[in-house]
Amino acid sequence: MSIAPPPTGTLGDSFARALPEMARPWQAEQAPEPRLLVLNEPLAAELGLDSAWLRSPEGLRLLVGNEIPSGATPVAQAYAGHQFGNYSPRLGDGRALLLGEVVHADGHLCDLHLKGSGRTPFSRGGDGLAAVGPMLREYVVSEAMHALGIPTTRSLSVVATGQPVRRDTLLPGAVLARVARSHLRVGSFQYAHATGDVDLLRRLADHAVARHHPDAGRRYLGLFEAVVAAQASLVARWMLVGFVHGVMNTDNMTISGETIDYGPCAFMEAVDPATVYSSIDHGGRYAYGNQPLVAEWNLARLAEALLPLFSDDQEQAIALAVEALGQFRGQYDSAWSAGMRAKLGLPDTLDNTVTTPLVDDLLALLQRNRVDHTSFYRRLGAAARGDAEPARELFPDLAAIDNWTTRWRALGPDADAMARVNPVYVPRNHLVEEALTAATEGDQRPLERLLDAVSAPFDERPERERYAAPAPDDFGAAYRTFCGT
Predict the structure, then answer these.
(1) Which of 111, 251, 281, 372 is catalytic?
(2) Would you write out the chain's pLDDT as a tens digit for each of its 485 residues?
(3) Which terminus of the chain, N or C, has less C-beta within 10 A?
(4) Is there a contact between 267 and 428 (Cβ–Cβ < 8 Å)?
(5) Where do the DSSP E strands lie in 57-134?
(6) Is 251 noted as a catalytic residue in this protein?
């Protein structure tokens, strides 16, 4: 099976054609006064879209789903999912629409998808709308993740609709145009499996193989193994930069291995595995330190959904699934360990008996002293050049960090290599909130300055010192983020 790209200037509908049982044709609600807030011109160019046209009244109507190219079939996608461990058999796009597929400059298909475009058959009583702030949060954080080299969905635009949205108060509404390799997720397979229609499940798996993992051997088992590997690598990268997803439900885990859904997400400041930023995660299920375990749990749910395709013999299918899932921990550990070596500027040739206790001791030291995650690793580069003071001043326990630094420097860390992987700038939580509040009130300058910093995260600039600093002490302790619904 292959997926043909759509002709230039059109939107393809391969998902809707291949899987009509999971694609409900639908239309976005009318936006009374579309007004562009931000447009990702480099991404538009990669997709072959004309930025000047996208800024026009016709382009804005496309970006909110009110003007659709001839032949396009906007659909709300069906999927199921475990949300905070509780299974829901029918979730789906409750406030989103897949407009169609476009061809990226690298030749791959990408979904053009709207978020906040109004009620759909899957809204479950919600209004289907989105406010300016949460849509700009997704734009900022997803573009920051892209700049950090972490697989992610991208943000093409945020357009204010001119329609108010009621949350705790009335807020200005907006629609995000999101770009992804696809919106296939673990929950998509859970939905297909729950129908009892093995043919649907097989067609979905064939579509996923063709779209994302065409080189997978052993077809369906190979697809599962490829998703396991992609997610092991992805979550390791989250952990290395201190990213807390916040809502790792199975409907928010992609088959492509891209990060998706930037609702209650944030970057950890003081190092603490128990860090939670989501306002609804009262038990800490999706805390920073739990993310690898949750990813493995989600993948087990994918394996359950795929069992009928692994073998007609259920016991054999389970054995194959268990063996494939068993690769996750080793792949995650390998990716995370390699990333930690890079952050510390250490060569791959060093023996684990040397690096493992060094890393373990460092993590305990960072947590005990509540050291800022991003600042520490960037400042440590100066220590590799002989100036230990910038990193040292982050620690109340000076003797402990001095001892650790002496051990580390004896291994000959590469400061230049460290500078290439340890960012100066991430979307600091207080700066994100400042930018979103200002933009909601009509001032986009803080947003523009923040985007400028996080779009080049490894390039230190004196005029951007404020964007490298941790939040004030009175900000972080009670900080929570929200999903926006």
Answers:
(1) 251
(2) 444 444 445 789 999 999 999 999 999 999 999 999 999 999 999 999 999 999 999 999 999 999 998 878 999 999 999 999 999 999 999 999 999 999 999 999 999 999 999 999 999 888 999 999 999 999 999 999 999 999 999 999 999 999 999 988 899 999 999 999 999 999 999 999 999 999 999 999 999 999 999 988 788 999 999 999 999 999 999 999 999 999 999 999 999 999 999 988 999 999 999 999 888 888 999 999 999 999 999 999 999 999 999 999 999 999 999 999 999 999 999 999 999 999 999 998 899 899 999 999 999 999 999 999 999 999 999 999 999 999 999 999 999 999 999 999 999 999 999 999 999 999 999 999 999 999 999 999 999 999 999 999 999 999 999 999 999 887 766 677 766 55
(3) N
(4) yes
(5) 75-77, 81-83, 86-88, 96-103, 109-115
(6) yes
Q: How far is CA 16 from CA 8, 11, 286, 453, in A?
A: 19, 12, 32, 39
User: How far is it, in rounded angstroms, from Cα 99 to Cα 110?
Assistant: 11
Strand partners, 179: 112, 154
* Residues near 107 by beta carbon (within 8 Å), at least 6 away in sequence: 5
Distance, in Å, from the CA atom of 395 to the CA atom of 450, rounded to the nearest integer, reads 28
Q: Which amino acid is at 311?
A: S
CB 288 within 8 A of CB 224: no
**Containing H/E element for 147?**
helix 132-147
Other beta carbons within 10 angstroms of residue 69's beta carbon come to 12
Q: How many angstroms separate the CA atoms of 95 and 129, rounded?
A: 6
Distance, in Å, from the CA atom of 424 to the CA atom of 144, rounded to the nearest integer, reads: 12
Nearest-angstrom CA–CA distance, 380 and 401: 11
Position of tokens 């080049």?
456
Cα–Cα distance measured from residue 426 to residue 275, given in angstroms and rounded to the nearest whole number: 17
Which backbone phi and psi does 332 adopt, to 5 degrees?
Answer: -65, -50
Say how many C-beta atoms besides its own lie within 10 A of residue 76's C-beta: 24
Cα 339 to chain center, whole Å?
18
CA dihedral sign, ordered 40, 41, 45, 50? positive
CB 238 within 8 A of CB 245: yes
